[in-house]
Amino acid sequence: MFSAARWRLTIVFTAILIVILATSGAIVYFTTRSLIFDRVDAELKDKAQQDLFLAEDDKHGGDDGPGGGGAGDKEFDPGGYSFAILGEDGDVIETSYGYDSSMTAPQWAIDEALGGGHAIAETETSDGETVRLCLLGATEPDGDSVVLQVGRSIERELDTLSELRVILAAVVVVSIVPALGGGYVLSGRVLRPI
What's the pTM? Predict the structure, then answer.
């Protein structure tokens, strides 16, 4: 009787500790994730605003078409970022050198950028790499609405978050044995007067 009650209390103590650790870990993970992507989004938005004049000044940037190496491509030096100027319907008007056409933002993000000034979206390259995008709406001198899309890979951030998940899970798993031992000792003291 005493032994069964002691093990039940031990399991309850351990379960409570695991729930507390898992909840704390989830809070740490999602707070960290939010901070990381808020920083990435701010960086992308700053970069897009710096280069917005290119979308407003020159719709085509050269005679070679999207990504074709024209004058616009020389201005759009990617430097780790990808750039594209999109029409209202999502058609690619101009891009930076080496632009991957699978990175074009979804239509909902284009509509949001045109309606509200900017939008944030994620997509993947043809190689499966995750890219975060910032889209800014702009109006050209001829009155046409366009969207400047700036993106960059977030694989490094995703790897960091993956490592954090492993660490937090390891903390919970490694805590189980000490929690069982501590719970067993505590439950023995609680039940001793009985």
Answer: 0.73
131 forms beta bridges with 123, 153
Cβ–Cβ contacts within 10 Å for residue 50, how many?
10
Q: Which two tokens stand for residue 117?
A: 């000034």
- Write down the pLDDT at residue 1: 54
Crossing angle between the packed helical segments 155-191 and 2-57, to the nearest 10 degrees: 160
**Residue 134: is it exposed, middle or buried by C-beta count within 10 angstroms (0-12/13-18/19+)?**
buried
Q: Which two tokens stand for residue 176?
A: 């189980």
Dihedral (CA of 11, 12, 15, 17) sign: negative
- Please list, in sequence order, all residues whose beta carbon lies within 8 angstroms of the beta carbon of residue 187, skipping any fewer than 6 positions away: 5, 6, 7, 9, 10, 13
Q: What does residue 136 show for φ and ψ, rounded to 5 degrees?
A: -120, 130
Helix (H) or strand (E) run with residue 149 in it: strand 145-153
Neighbouring C-beta atoms of residue 190, cutoff 10 Å: 13
Residue with tokens 């366009």: 146
> Mean pLDDT per segment of 10 residues, for the chain of length 194 residues?
74 87 94 96 88 54 44 50 89 85 89 89 90 89 85 94 95 85 76 65
At 121, give phi and psi (nearest 5°).
Answer: -145, 165
